[in-house]
Amino acid sequence: RLFENFYRNGIFVFGGGQVLVPLMFTEFVQMKQYLHASGFLSGFALQQALPGPTFSFTSYIGALSMKNFGYGLGGQILGGAVAVIGINLPGLILVLFIVPFWDDLKKIARIKHSLSGINAVSVGFIIAAFILLLIPIGLDIMAIGILLSTFLILNFTKVSPTVLVIVGILLGCFI
After folding, report:
1. Would you give the end-to-end CA distance of the chain in angstroms?
2. Maximum mean pLDDT: which of 47-51, 67-71, 142-146
3. What is the DSSP string of 114-163?
4. Burial of 81 (0-12, 13-18, 19+ CB in 10 A)
């Protein structure tokens, strides 16, 4: 069942792994309650600080889901592996079977026009991710201050995102 959940999410990826965040939050936290919002958000924050694709976040979700169902370390490793395979398999199938014909497919008017719509939907998913991940944090003065400070520091200084995440973790432990 875990494989099916990630495979289905992998089908919807268009525009990068960030598009998956609201889908996975809704499915794994709100609907199926495989994990809590705090665990999801902590893992996502950590993944953003580390180099690599957003898809690596799926191994965390798979492993944590198995842990929450009472599985030991072996089950958690299996859950992480199943999640990574499930999320990446649709893309692999696409690369193996569609890419060889991609130049010809892009010339078909309906496909060309549908790609513009798919790109627009991807932007909507990223905005939805922002809103869905903001809701569990709440909108108190401190949260808004942290959000604005982080945004300004990332956009107007050369401070590494990794440093910001580490500082955020430390502040979260002491505040």
Report:
1. 39
2. 67-71
3. HHHHHHHHHHHHHHHHHHHHHTTT---HHHHHHHHHHHHHHHHS---HHH
4. middle
The CA angle 165-169-171, to the nearest 5 degrees, is 115
Q: Which residues of 130-164 are buried (b: 16+ CB within 10 A; e: fewer)?
A: eebbeeeeeeeeeeeebeeebeeeeeeeeeeeeeb
Convert the pLDDT of each residue in 114-164 to its tens digit. Answer: 878 877 887 887 788 778 777 776 677 877 788 889 889 999 999 988 888
User: Where along the chain do its domains lie?
Assistant: 2-136, 138-175
Alpha carbon distance 17, 12 (integer Å)? 10
Q: Give the pTM.
A: 0.65
Are 26 and 55 spatial neighbours (Cβ–Cβ below 8 Å)?
no
CA 22 to chain centroid: 7
